[in-house]
Amino acid sequence: MLSITSQYLARYRRLTAAGDRSDVLLPVTGAQRRFLLVRSLDPSGRPDLVPMFFAFPYGTIDPERLRAAARRLAARHTALRSRPAVVRGTPVLRVADPDVDVTRPAPIPGERPTDTLRRALSSWDAQGSPLRLFLVSDEEREEDVLAIALDHAVCDGRSLARIVDELGAAYSEEPVTARPEPGDTEAELAAYRDTVLRQLAAEERAETPEAAAYWADRLRTLQAHAPSPRPARVPDGASSSGAAQIRLPAHDGGVPFPGLLDACRAAARELYGPDLVIPLGYPWGGRPSGAEPVIGCFLNTVAFPADTGRTPDPEETADAWWDDLDRADMPFDAVVTAVRAAGSGWTGGLDGLLTVDDASRRPPLRLAGVEGREVHVDGRPVRGPFAVSVTQGAEIHLRMVWDRAVLDDTTAHRAFDALTHALRPAPHPAV
Predict the structure, then answer these.
(1) Distance from first CA to last CA of the chain, Å, rounded?
(2) For position 230, what pLDDT does the model report?
(3) Burial of 1 (0-12, 13-18, 19+ CB in 10 A)
(4) Is the pLDDT of residue 238 over 80?
(5) pTM as predicted
(6) How many alpha carbons lie under 13 Å from residue 180 in its C-beta half-sphere?
(7) The CA-based dihedral angle spanning residues 110, 375, 425, 301, taken in that order and rounded to the nearest 10 degrees
(8) Phi and psi of 82, rounded to 5°?
(9) What are the beta bridge partners of residue 373?
């Protein structure tokens, strides 16, 4: 029987072999297939978004120059000017002209700048450009807050640093309306297509019967244990999600990833109770060997079975995690199919998400020599019940957000305390 990736490639090749389309259709990776599936299951068709927020002093940003720089950036990178679509039942990216605007949403009287930005992002039209910029003035701080928002289906975390760096460079280029040479654009398009096909080849090789059997056994006890959504639990006047954050002293060499998984397990125990195995997802992977470092979405989602009834054993967690990484190229949808074929009731839902970032990899956004201050806009919708982000550098920046329609604030803060406690560096012994 053909693997999911093999079946997808066969459908895509039949689609493009017809030769009756005037537009360019590109294949999608397993990671992109997951985002498109999640979007299709959302009642509102809401895509997953990756926003970054930067505050600049009043008068720093020239909106027209910024718009030209963003269009230049999108023209250079195929993924940033392509729209996710489903053609004859086949998920694809449809290449389009770069069309990026800088929108200045008008605030409602009495509305805070963060509320205005949340409202602008919530009105995202899934049919438009995958890269959009929003600019809101904060009169109290005498700042302008710039939101750079991307459809997650065309961008993973490893692309963000390059986007920030190249947007700042394009903003400084002259003439401001210059566009990339057609030859450069075509070369990047070819590089992007080649990279996606290399990724799909790697995923096809990873979908072995042995890997399917491994994941079926590893995840067979999973169930989604989050309570059913109860929208009435959202406090009156509160945003749809809650958030908590803290900065902790850095560990020597950073916190090992298995330690982060165990910390999330501790949080899940507070959220869902003991003696459960909840699905925790995290992104992993990179560009395939020999491929160009193109902007796109290539990080697979790996599921970790967080057993809330077991006392964490660092060595056991690490050994199991290394075994998982040996099969981490198997696409998420293929993993879910294998687990369900083995009799599990798990449908692929995730009770928690974990993302890890290296502070040294994210350059500041500079516009005309002025460095923007990265800020957070909390209260945005959360795709899963809770999500944890860890930024490691000179210190550990730990953030957790949760869906208030699923988890109450008191329980979530208790879970965050457990998460924080698990990640605090052990005290040095007295001498």
Answers:
(1) 64
(2) 55
(3) exposed
(4) no
(5) 0.91
(6) 22
(7) 100
(8) -115, 145
(9) 55
CB 380 within 8 A of CB 403: no
Nearest in space to 327 (alpha carbons), one of 315, 339, 316: 339
Lookup: tokens for 319:
């050994």
Rounded to whole angstroms, the Cα distance separating 54 from 148 reads 8
Going by C-beta distance under 8 Å and a sequence separation of 6 or more, which residues neighbour residue 97?
81
CA distances from 118 to 107, 124, 402 (A): 11, 10, 16
Lowest pLDDT segment from 173-177, 277-281, 391-395: 173-177
**Burial letters 160-175, b for 16+ CB under 10 A, else e:** bebbbebbbebbeeee
Q: Of 285, 310, 301, which Cα lies nearest the Cα of 350?
A: 301
Block residue for tokens 């030859």: 183
How many angstroms separate the CA atoms of 386 and 351, rounded?
Answer: 7
How many whole angstroms separate alpha carbon 289 and alpha carbon 291? Answer: 6
Q: Which single residue is written with the structure tokens 């002259």?
A: 174
Average pLDDT score, the chain: 91
pLDDT for position 236: 66
Structure tokens at 243: 């958030």
The C-alpha angle with vertex 158 and arms to 155 and 159, in degrees rounded to 5, equals 45
**237 SS3 class:** coil
User: From CA 285, how far away is CA 211, in angstroms rounded?
Assistant: 16
pLDDT at position 411:
95
Does a cis peptide bond (omega within 30 degrees of 0) precede residue 91?
no
Which DSSP string corresponds to 287-330? SPTT----SS--PEEEEEEEETTS---HHHHHHHHHHHHTTTTS
Partners of residue 390 on adjacent β-strands:
356, 398
Q: Of the ranges 34-43, 189-198, 310-319, 361-370, which is most confident?
A: 189-198
Of 129, 168, 175, the residue nearest 146 (C-alpha)? 168
Residue in the structure block whose two tokens are 């930024």: 391
**How far apart (Å, rounded) are the C-alpha atoms in residues 80 and 362?**
19
pLDDT at 218: 97
* Helix count and strand count (H, E) for the chain: 11, 16
The closest of 105, 111, 115 to 136, measured between CA atoms, is 105
Look-up of token digits 């039942």: 89
Quote the pLDDT of residue 312.
Answer: 83
Question: Contact 272/225 with Cβ under 8 angstroms?
Answer: yes
Residue 315 structure tokens: 């060595």
- Cα 376 to Cα 151, 289, 373, 380, 401: the distances in Å are 18, 34, 10, 10, 12
What one-character-per-residue DSSP string does 356-402 give? EEEGGG-PPPEETTEEPEEE-------SSSEEEEEEESSEEEEEEEE
